[in-house]
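Before the break, one more example. Copy the sequence into your notebook; we will annotate it together after we see the structure.
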Amino acid sequence: MTEDAPITSSVPTPPRRVDVRRGARRLRESWAPITQIVVAATAAYAFSVTVLGHPAPLLTTTVTISSLGLVRDARPRLIAETVAGMVFGVLVAEVLRFAFGTGWWQLGLALALTLGVARFLSAQNGFAIAAAIQSGIVIVIPGNEPFARLADALVGAVAALLVTALIPRSARSVVSRDGRELFAAFDAAAGTLAQGLRRGDPLRAARGLEKARATTARVDAWRASLDAGQEIARISPFLFRDRSELARHGTILAAMDLATRNLRVVARRVVYVVDDGQARPVAAAVLGDLQRGAALVAGSLDDISLQPAAREALLAVARRLDPVALLPGASHTDQNVVAAMRPLAVDLLTATGMSPVDARGALPRV
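Here is what the structure looks like once it is written out:
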């Protein structure tokens, strides 16, 4: 390297491209919260201007937008907590402003009191931050009428809670989508593991284990959307009919949570057993049958008429899950792979609405 050579040099990078497909999906998923925010903020602002006579009701807008947001988890309880935090912050700041005026030390005192009390009252980080933001606005931005901005904050809070019930975010469609994504992840993991068994491929088996472990995030996402959907359905008159379906989804989710855990157990045994490179077509066929039964359960998320077919398909697999009968003379290691599929079959049967006792009773005694 010469002395004149630069130590560092710029590297040209291509311009970042806009992913139209992902952008369209984000927009499609966000139209309901966007509608909520627009309606709530506009209505709250109009009420404060026309009814209360406030010329610039800033907090009606900030409270509605901040409390509703575009997050997936829009449970009414969380929205109510955020609203309460913001109103509390405004109240503290208004009291301090009325008693001591405005200035740098009043701002510090308001933020310290608001954050301290908010952290004492709630474990939610958003509660304290939302309260502090509104408290800072009250101290920093001048206002003429005492406690007028507290009234604006209350108007925004009421508007946010009303639109949560009267313009609800589509609970059932979001829950169904998250459920389908979990089943798709389950199907991909089970299919890869079955291929690893069929080909005696250690690398494919290891990849199947990775996919099985990745289903945890899908379970958590489905649980979050289901909890939010059930809370919204409890307060919204427009989602009353969805309550029974959401409860059914809850039963399937509980069973699939256990199923994904047992799939990871199966995956670890598959990784161990195929390390010798030998094909295991019988175990692969059994796992493939369970995979197809799970696909029928996935279809029943949106069409309950598929539930009996899913149950019969899984019963046909469960009734022959005898490791010794399926693999006579095989090693205990090979038989243990099939034995690990027994709890998985029970979980999938439970996902079809079958009781755990009846599902276990469908298995042959070993």
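The chain has 14 helices and no strands. The domain at 171-361 is CATH 1.20.58.220 (Methane Monooxygenase Hydroxylase; Chain G, domain 1). Try to locate both features in your own notes.
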